[in-house]
Amino acid sequence: MITQKFTVTQPTQIRFGVGAIDDLAGAVQDLGGSKALLVVDPNLKNVGLLEKITAPLDRNGVAYEIFDHIDPEPGLKLADEGTALAAKSSCDCVIGAGGGSAMDVAKAISILMTNGGKAVDYLGLGKIKKPGVPKIMVPTTAGTGAEVTFTAVFINEETKSKGGMNGDPLYPDVALLDPALTLTLPPHVTAAPGIDAFTHALESFVSTQSHTISEMYAVQAMELISGNLAMAYANGDNLEARSAMLMGSLLAGKALATAGVGLVHAMAYPLGGMYNIPHGLANAVLLPYVVDYNIIGNPEKFALIAEIMGYDVSELPLRQAGQVAVEAVYELNRDVGIPKSLEEIGIEFDSIPEMAEIALTVTRPVENNPRKPSLEDVIRVYETAFKGW
Fold it and tell me: What is the mean pLDDT of each run of 10 residues along the chain (389 residues)?
């Protein structure tokens, strides 16, 4: 509602469009950088993307050092290692290129270069005191929206838990989004990150912290992703669908940065920490089951989600209209090959109570959720998702 009190911080300059990667050297120079630490997913070289990212730097004489020790679920030590390499190589800015893992590591390195200490020192909210060195993000997947968020998520190797650094200094200075860089994505790397982005939009839309601006981003993101993900999955060379997905992911990132996410994310964290399940896949598998649980918390908004996804619910009672959102999400998952259950991705049934306890410690997403979950509720949702429908 418009009378709600909220704060929106949006410091990132966005450069979007086919050929945007050609602006990379100029972006470094505009920020006063002379040598960049290029933090990249290691598979970018295998799919021919690394050269497309380094080419504009080479053409314009911008020096760089490559750091490609990135895992799908990165540990805190990677940020520490990258920071040491940046110092040794006299880098004065950071470029993160790839998926959310590379961008999160890049953002953390930027902060460590000016704040000192170790990555573990900054887990939580409000612990970052100084701005980082200039940082530029180049997403090559349509998923996390990390190029416009103030969060960097890691596995804590000591505790085996997953947690995030959070604070405005983590916002990137520039986000370069070039849809052409996503054309080489294989179907499975299109699917899970795409549902991840949709989850960001959906959860921010129903978040207790949602407001007029976040809802604007979330609605547009859900429209773009639900209308284009299956086409991008079916034909990876569909540039129009790829462009829509990249914009949808960006807007979903804006939505989550301004309103937060919910129980899906809280329940996904233990899957990453205990089983090393990629974040996007964990969110995707859990999403329909958590949506089903959450409907009574805000049936009107879930009915709107069904409409946004293209379903006619005008003749249905509100609760039934909201239930259509569950069917719509489940169908979207099925269209892009998302596994139907936790059992299919290797989760052990006996670990559910421990996962539920961990999920409830992810306090901000739990607090944002439209329905306040008990331990028994979370266990029950996990059990349903384990078996599948």
Answer: 80 97 98 98 91 97 96 93 98 97 97 97 94 98 96 89 91 98 94 98 98 97 98 98 98 96 97 93 98 98 98 96 98 98 98 97 96 98 97
Is residue 4 a part of any domain in this protein?
no
The CATH number of whichever domain residue 286 belongs to comes to 1.20.1090.10
**How far is residue 244's CA from residue 223's CA, in Å, rounded to a whole number?**
10
**Total domain count for the chain?**
2
CA distance 311 to 325: 8
- Residue type at 134 in one-letter notation: P
Give the distance from CA 327 to its chain's centroid. Answer: 23
What's the rounded Cα separation, in Å, for the pair 261 and 370? 10
Last residue of a domain, one of 128, 162, 182: 182
> Do residues 22 and 32 touch, judged by C-beta distance below 8 A?
no
d(CA 109, CA 363): 25
Helix H or strand E encompassing 210: none
Domain range enclosing 367: 187-387
Question: Do 176 and 285 belong together in one domain?
Answer: no
Residue 7 lies in a domain: no
Q: Which two structure tokens, joined as six digits, stand for 84?
A: 């040491």
CA separation, residue 359 to residues 150, 284, 291, 372, 382 (Å):
21, 16, 16, 13, 11
Tokens describing residue 247: 């914009």
**∠ Cα 251 255 257 (to 5°):** 115
